[in-house]
Fold these 2 entries.
Entry 1:
Amino acid sequence: MSTQPSKELQTFPNPRPGRNYTISFRCPEFTCVCPMTGQPDFAEFTIEYVPDELCVELKSLKLYLWSFREEGAFHEAITNRILDDLVAAVNPIWMRLSGEFNVRGGIYTNITVEYPDQTSAEEDDCCCGHCE
Amino acid sequence: MSTQPSKELQTFPNPRPGRNYTISFRCPEFTCVCPMTGQPDFAEFTIEYVPDELCVELKSLKLYLWSFREEGAFHEAITNRILDDLVAAVNPIWMRLSGEFNVRGGIYTNITVEYPDQTSAEEDDCCCGHCE
Amino acid sequence: MSTQPSKELQTFPNPRPGRNYTISFRCPEFTCVCPMTGQPDFAEFTIEYVPDELCVELKSLKLYLWSFREEGAFHEAITNRILDDLVAAVNPIWMRLSGEFNVRGGIYTNITVEYPDQTSAEEDDCCCGHCE
Amino acid sequence: MSTQPSKELQTFPNPRPGRNYTISFRCPEFTCVCPMTGQPDFAEFTIEYVPDELCVELKSLKLYLWSFREEGAFHEAITNRILDDLVAAVNPIWMRLSGEFNVRGGIYTNITVEYPDQTSAEEDDCCCGHCE
Amino acid sequence: MSTQPSKELQTFPNPRPGRNYTISFRCPEFTCVCPMTGQPDFAEFTIEYVPDELCVELKSLKLYLWSFREEGAFHEAITNRILDDLVAAVNPIWMRLSGEFNVRGGIYTNITVEYPDQTSAEEDDCCCGHCE
Amino acid sequence: MSTQPSKELQTFPNPRPGRNYTISFRCPEFTCVCPMTGQPDFAEFTIEYVPDELCVELKSLKLYLWSFREEGAFHEAITNRILDDLVAAVNPIWMRLSGEFNVRGGIYTNITVEYPDQTSAEEDDCCCGHCE
Amino acid sequence: MSTQPSKELQTFPNPRPGRNYTISFRCPEFTCVCPMTGQPDFAEFTIEYVPDELCVELKSLKLYLWSFREEGAFHEAITNRILDDLVAAVNPIWMRLSGEFNVRGGIYTNITVEYPDQTSAEEDDCCCGHCE
Amino acid sequence: MSTQPSKELQTFPNPRPGRNYTISFRCPEFTCVCPMTGQPDFAEFTIEYVPDELCVELKSLKLYLWSFREEGAFHEAITNRILDDLVAAVNPIWMRLSGEFNVRGGIYTNITVEYPDQTSAEEDDCCCGHCE
Amino acid sequence: MSTQPSKELQTFPNPRPGRNYTISFRCPEFTCVCPMTGQPDFAEFTIEYVPDELCVELKSLKLYLWSFREEGAFHEAITNRILDDLVAAVNPIWMRLSGEFNVRGGIYTNITVEYPDQTSAEEDDCCCGHCE
Amino acid sequence: MSTQPSKELQTFPNPRPGRNYTISFRCPEFTCVCPMTGQPDFAEFTIEYVPDELCVELKSLKLYLWSFREEGAFHEAITNRILDDLVAAVNPIWMRLSGEFNVRGGIYTNITVEYPDQTSAEEDDCCCGHCE
């Protein structure tokens, strides 16, 4: 496997398909640049998900997060984008992504997004254990 | 954008309308004055919201909080007022504001307000994920 | 306003009647005496409430707690009594009082009381957001 | 009152019968012996309960816990036994007992028991606020 | 009892069958090897369960965890396997296993699995107190 | 021994005279009143000392601290006075008293006094281990 | 005494002149403005001193710190200035002032100044206990 | 080796005689009884020492501490006695023992003793690295 | 002033030359790349110094740290280099730089360098208060 | 470089010879076996050193610590041995090694060794900054 930054997320088959369980990654080493000023931004992302057929490969996740190092990104947009990329890669039963951004202007920002979206989940039919 | 205190909250379009997700800001740098004695008061405000069409612009939020620096304010009233201003600016699906005021008379005060109000939300019809 | 200990709790009109929101006070400076031995007792009380028409005035709350300084009080009885006094003063939609008493005999005691009582609240009819 | 270890738990009338409220005791000073090796064991017990007619007297609770000092006890058995004794003494509406045992073999053990048992409580009929 | 590593989990009869209560073990001393590189991996496992007829014997649990010391194991697979072994040994009413793995590539991984699986539990019929 | 507040400090013979060692007491339960306003003040005192012939008896220390409950006291004066009383009672080789007073006017005050005073100790001649 | 901001620091006679002891104040409620941008700055100051003839009066210290609310100040300059003002007011045997400024540009700044300055103290002659 | 409580401390030869280094043990599982009331007392002892020819054997240290379980002991006396026993057993170059006793009467007691005593050590001749 | 990364450190005149005092900066937002693999590295640097004629300008410090973002650097080399650059810029009386690098291979690395070097400082002649 | 466990410690030239500075490594991933029972032991080692001509290479340090995985080792002996190996590899000006071993028999053990030994360092001649 390469050690170059890459938007390609690798996967491997879920070793226990059919059981709903939770995998979480805490990733304190994220940096991108501010799209307005070009100055560095720093964040810690936390990923939690219930896998279906596929799991996220750990090393490719590191390379994926690295790939944003030179990119400009607004807090709200990049958090949504990373969730979309992860969902596209492993098609999970449930996933939540939380980005904790470093203080700017004396204010600390956090963004939390989920899949499936809380509005689209039909609670009565869902049995993943995270919707209620 | 100005660097003067201002009650005008700036907004930008939600980059992911249609998805319910949560943005939070922790703002430890708030000060106003006591309306009785004119002495300084200090508080930390935490804002959490689910955006609809609009998001709160971070720098204007800083200038907005600054604008209370010379104003007299009772704890209960100012917390309600800031929530009203934020709701008017971005018309969110859901918002909660919590003010943690510095100790006075050996007592620590916290005020937490929500929009929509817990009494007016009709739980069965609401799907924002925060009402249950 | 006086600076004498007093059982008279002052109130002021809720600045935002009709909105259900939460006010909390943490009061680490409480002392009374043991009714058996007359020795000092110490506790920290935490008050949380949803105001209706009236709010608790902060300074009178300090004087009220001071008024127990020379009184003998059992843990269970005084916690219930303080809740009753606060409820009588502001007639809140909901209130919870928690007393954390200093260690005695190697044992740490906490008492938590609520209004309305959990048995008397009819959950289906209540919309204060704290009953479920 | 004696200062001898005793299995006799003293009680006093609940000062506020009819109101459901919670009393908790944290008891870090518990020791018994291992029934296999006779070596000392140490634990911290936390008791939470909703009283009905009677409350647990604090000093007799200390003497009761002391009474296990020379007795051999398995973790699972003694935690269930202490709950049974406390329930027999005060017949509470609800009680939970949690025992946090010191590390043995590199493993930390906790046991938590409740009354009424979660299987026997009929949720629809119970209004103690702890069953849901 | 032996002091050799062993996959054989010993059990003893639940001292209080019929009461639903929770036993938990925190096990910070776990090590296996990476199946790709053969390098050591470290984790802390936390086990929580509601026993039915049988309880896990503490010393055999230590020997069981020791038995993975020389084995290669992927995070997701080994966490599922340990749950399966524990369930096979004591057939609990409910069990949850959480593995907190040491940082690799700047990323911290946690895996949490439950029995019965959240998808297979039929909530209306279950009264173990952990399914809702 | 009485259980009334008393300025009389009891002592007992040092069980190991001739050895320099340190005894410390942390006393979080101290309250007096403000000499200006009569309102309650709260503090935590920490005593450290190297005994000579006599040691401070623990229960009488409790009664001594209790004796200030109704007395007015400035922070700087009372801390010096308590040190003087303790030194007069046990004539220690060395003693340090530290008073941590509750916040007033948004400011937290600490006072630390020592015996013998740092100016009067002749460092070259002193071997108590605390003067350098 | 006034409740207006004031650069006039009040003092009172040291209740125990001749004994070297330490008084410290922790002051988390300080705000001034940036002399470049006019935007608010926040800091927490900690004062420690050994009094000689005079002590700092607590309420006037609060009013003194308040007096900087509308003033522009560089971190290094204001910390030195506050020390100078305090030294001029009470002429202490020793004083240390530490300012912990809120994060700006992702960097946290602390400034610590002492009186007498470490270069001017002639260590062999000084017996205040703080020079070595 | 026995698993009975015993005042006999076992030793083993220092594996690196001639090098001054520090061994420390933290022992949170200590209990004895109050010599006045017979009620249980609890403490945590911390031992630090520089070995000479002999080291303290860990299991016998556990049995030694266990041997005080039924004995009455004053805080100051027992701490000195345990130091004396340890010094007699291994004749260390330096040793410090610290006993942190559970709160009694609202007061937390700590006792710290050293060998050789700070008064008897002739600092100029000592090179153990702990005397200065 | 530019907002581009730059190795040029800006300075301003020390507002209080002649007084030895300490300025410290904690800089958690540092990233460079590994010179072997090109992968990102992260660190937190803490700078403490006693200024002589010049002080470090805060914004240029931010831009200076930013300038390493694309550079390869070994931990030991870069920490020494940053100290050299800072010393060259402000010629301080004393400076210490500490770099806390993120975990790699399960090992956490810290590097601390000082100016003047501990070997070259002639202690008897130095009065900066940091050499003893 | 190999990824096999190895007692061979790799080094690289100190990038700044002549400057005394400190490098530290915190290594929480250490395991060996008890030489008496063969059961696993766990420890966290912290290394601090002032390099002379050579520095410890980070990856080889990881492989070196791994090499003890199957070896039996007493706490006191292995800590001294690791220090000896590290000193032999890089011949540092100063080095301290601290081993924090997991609890056994309810007792927590720490061992701290230094080079050069505190007895052999002639303090007057040493200028490494760590001997005083």
Note: Residues 75-90 of chain D form the longest helix (16 residues).
Entry 2:
Amino acid sequence: MTASTARPAHATPGHEPTVDVDALTAAMLGPYAELRRGARAVAGDPRFQRIEGLTVAEHRARVLEQLRTLAREGEVLRAFPTALGGRDDHGGSVSRFAELVVADPSLQIKAGVQWGLFASAIMHLGTEAHHENLLPDAMSVDVPGAFAMTETGHGSDVASIGTTATYDPATEEFVIHTPFRAAWKDYLGNAALHGTASVLFAQLITAAPGGPAVNHGVHAFYVPLRDPATGEFLPGIGGEDDGLKGGLNGIDNGRLHFDHVRVPRTNLLNRYGDVAPDGTYSSPISSPGRRFFTMLGTLVQGRVSLDGAAVNACKLALIIAVTYGNERRQFTGGSDTDEMVLLDYGEHQRRLLPLLAETYASTFAHEELLKAFDGVFSGKNDTEETRQDLETLAASLKPTSTWLALRTLQTSREACGGAGFLTENRLTSLYADLDVFATFEGDNTVLLQLVAKRLLTDYGREFAKIDAGGVARYVAGQAASAALHRTPLLRAVQTVADVGDARRSAGQLRDAETQHALLVDRVETMVAEVAQALRPATKAPRAQAADLFNEHQHDLIELARAHAELVQWEAFTAGIARVDDPGTQKVLTWLRDLFGLSVIERNLAWYLIHGRLSAGRARTVTSYLDRLLRRLRPHAQDLVDAFGYGPEHVRATIASGAERARQDEARAYYRAQRASGDAPVSEKQVPSGKIARSSARPAAARSAVDEVPAEATPA
Amino acid sequence: MTASTARPAHATPGHEPTVDVDALTAAMLGPYAELRRGARAVAGDPRFQRIEGLTVAEHRARVLEQLRTLAREGEVLRAFPTALGGRDDHGGSVSRFAELVVADPSLQIKAGVQWGLFASAIMHLGTEAHHENLLPDAMSVDVPGAFAMTETGHGSDVASIGTTATYDPATEEFVIHTPFRAAWKDYLGNAALHGTASVLFAQLITAAPGGPAVNHGVHAFYVPLRDPATGEFLPGIGGEDDGLKGGLNGIDNGRLHFDHVRVPRTNLLNRYGDVAPDGTYSSPISSPGRRFFTMLGTLVQGRVSLDGAAVNACKLALIIAVTYGNERRQFTGGSDTDEMVLLDYGEHQRRLLPLLAETYASTFAHEELLKAFDGVFSGKNDTEETRQDLETLAASLKPTSTWLALRTLQTSREACGGAGFLTENRLTSLYADLDVFATFEGDNTVLLQLVAKRLLTDYGREFAKIDAGGVARYVAGQAASAALHRTPLLRAVQTVADVGDARRSAGQLRDAETQHALLVDRVETMVAEVAQALRPATKAPRAQAADLFNEHQHDLIELARAHAELVQWEAFTAGIARVDDPGTQKVLTWLRDLFGLSVIERNLAWYLIHGRLSAGRARTVTSYLDRLLRRLRPHAQDLVDAFGYGPEHVRATIASGAERARQDEARAYYRAQRASGDAPVSEKQVPSGKIARSSARPAAARSAVDEVPAEATPA
């Protein structure tokens, strides 16, 4: 990022490969490069950037204003219909939104609330009249809106929310009601202050003429909240400010409750379920379960967006920590005079470079997610299966990248020491803002369980067809196509049928096929093992089945992690092929190997227990990993520079070259002192016996002190 | 903590052991129980507690005022001489300070700066006249003081600081000078605003009559900073505010620089080194290296204090997460009506209970550290060896517990979902404040290296005496006494000479001897392996030796971690013996086993590679660990209640019983609805065919909507 930064690889010509930074940047920006560069120009504009130290009120007001400016100038409406000024470009839209995190995560998330959730729900769950009447004001932020789904009592379990929308055929209205405190809507952006309307989720209750009241499950309603002129709640509506949060304080999260608030029948966003004037319910999707998940399917956009933003936050963190690590000096190491830069320390490399590798893997994996998302949402590739694949992929990657962001930000913070703790160096604020990424838009743990259930379900369908005696062979031979290849990334992968091969060929851990075989084998085997353990649950009474499932919850989550890591590895490998320059390819291959071997090292016990690696071979995992760290170290600066962020995005004093200037000044001072001969000699150089030895009991030194004046005399 | 919280173990009499919470609390409070209870009364006083949402200026002013009130009423001066109103009680003093974190970490750390660093340095590095003239105002906070050691350019490497103190015999003054920007003092509490004086560390340069100028290394000087009346810097002194930080914003960290500022000769804190009026240097410690480390030895108090505070923060986090996990319900699991509480989920237990076990281990280990600290600082057990043991123990435990605090706070935050992100629930603020604990008062990574170096040095001394052929036998037979038993905790431990035994007896993983043998064996073997790898360094030129050391830096740090975990395990085991109640002992033993097996599981690959556990046996580690989680789950609330903190300390809405009240209200609502027969029936219960099927193409549903009014009609 800074032109002055040393890149040892460039300094030492010879056989050492070099990275073509610009070409790598282009590869990392991917098919949406142009849109991303545009969004980065926006994120680099000080008007959209966070100012630290604002009060909560000031920060909230600033972000609302930024949102309105974005609506006018920021090209943020790409996802919306062309007829309404949009571009019908879903993937491109999300690729741009994920860049806003660089300006201020509060801006990114408030934009997500307004356009990704509130307006998006009107678009995806509503029908033509809703689009015409409601979308324009939502798009322009003339109506800031809340996405009123989560309740104090129910976050992940949306199906169990308590708010009711009971149809009254007499007035052709829905009555929105909060029956108890736990059913208050909670944690909603725009609810505390700015929101004048909401898309509200409630249990839809209606009766066909002469029939009983039926609860048709969760549906979305357009519910106005405040008088735009006064900002006062409309009658029957109340709420609270969620107050100060750990981060994202530019967003006015709040709570809402409703006391028999009436909205017209037509405020039901009725794409997937409708109520006729007489109270008759109808839906194009007969299964209430499938209908519910179809409606919730629009939420996947938020997860795609968070995945992209989390990866971008990793990039910022690593630019800061690697740049500082290449300039900051501490302890002399093997030299008599010069101190070593931090990144030359083995442990510093061990802490930062695997995170760099994982950030690359996540970048490429995010690109695949974006492609799957665009395929489904554009309609170009929208089938039941591709929707499920998209859900699974998003549920795999969002937890992986949001947790990676927290680890990367924290490790980078610590790698920068006290300087990392200063707000001006950004790492602590980014951590605070991204913290909640791990639990909102789908709690990470819950999402990983969904992935595991999907892998199991895929496995189970095939599993049912073969007899028990064939299980072992099946596990080795066929699990891959059943369990894995449903997710879009994995379809093209060659099944590794012979586990024995993987074991033998592990001699070549640097070999891509071997890494792949080891990663695939782990997922396959885990699926088969968990399936076997859970098999009795398929026939047991509900409570017993739930207990069994619960006992294996941790295994399911580990399985989902293993699957996500495989997806990342494959995306990384596919990404390397998109780079032409041989030097860059070589360095990227080392980085991919570092990623793969880090995953394998983390799970080394599993490979040993399952006989996939011998003890001798397992030792070489760590030693080859160490070798990779040393090989990659000279390229670290290039690899973070290739993220393509400029100083206007990084905005951290310690990554601005200030540290290098300080170090150079200090070294010049000592050099000049040595050259002049004026330097005081070290006590160690004084012949022994020349230093007066005061009494061995330190207390005796006291006699030398008479009085200590209270003030210094300045020169 | 809340009386209403369910404790399943108490509810089901039979063979299930029960925890005597009060007795356990007493055991955890340890020998300093009375002092701790006193400090907790202070920490429970709202006057000393953090108010969230204050501006930085307000927070800083509040904490300064709190400090002055503490000086008058808080019994914070126990460590100081009885003659000056203290109690000469070092261990007791730190045991109390560590409780202040519960009120506000800013208060704890500012107290640490004032009394633990500034006043303490006057006491430990100064002599009688300093004590008489300077200590009273430092103790009373009439003189808020900075501890001016760290510079922008040098944190961990104190020996290399750039500030100079050059003696001028003509005026009998030291000239304090900052030669370049990197030598500015930085990150100093009290420097930005409140500090009127400092204890400043600088290179002492003086010449004996007729001799050359000699740099005698880093010494401490009392240097006034500001005019107390105006708050203005004294002439020649300048500085900057460090500005906003990731946390601890109640402390005014800042930077200082000095332009030939003169202080009287007697401002040198001269216990370990003095300068006579004619410029002659004298010291009771002839080796400059040993002198330097002796002076820095006083810093160990800060590490002891941070260790205690970090463990207390873990306790708060776990009280909050476990209490909420016992009340919060989500998803129905195996029941038709009631949702499950979070802590009944296997993964929730997997996330929280091992942290609970580690917090117990850290609590008991901290008690041992406090004992060692008090022994040395009281003079009761102050030898060169016990000082080194204390340093090593502090360097082992401070990194371990401060990292544990971050993991525990973050995991607890995530386990509480969105509620955990609200500032009112404390987890995010505690995380932000404790973040820097990992890198100040000794960077964790640097400290762990010191531990490893100590283990190696101890090993090396013995190693030199035997021939190369004896190495292998020596590793198995004698390493423990050489490498481990120097640290005070480990002296009483029986050496495990036969690794083969450990392997065979691993059949009983729940057996304490087996766990211990496995943990000891790992440390011994790692020491021996690293020593072997580093052996060439002892004879190589400096640069090569440094390279070799650097290549093995990660191994050294892993070794230090393994050592710290062994120390924790042993302290935990010793702690169990101090509890009399058999039920409590049993539960604590399970918890200790959970700790031990978690450590072994984390390092399972190591045990497998080194042939210490067979693959079959390794599998049982995880399954036994799962069994322990299920056994401990009913006791989780008791185990956090036993930390002995009241609502006035916890102060988190979600741990106040509010969640239980909400859940009870919601369940009562549904129960009443079911009983009344008024509940709408679920769509699934409606005979199929009764739901109108709108066109299969969702778009067709659009026809049902005519117009969507912009406002709701309230009831």
Note: The longest strand of chain A covers residues 213-224.
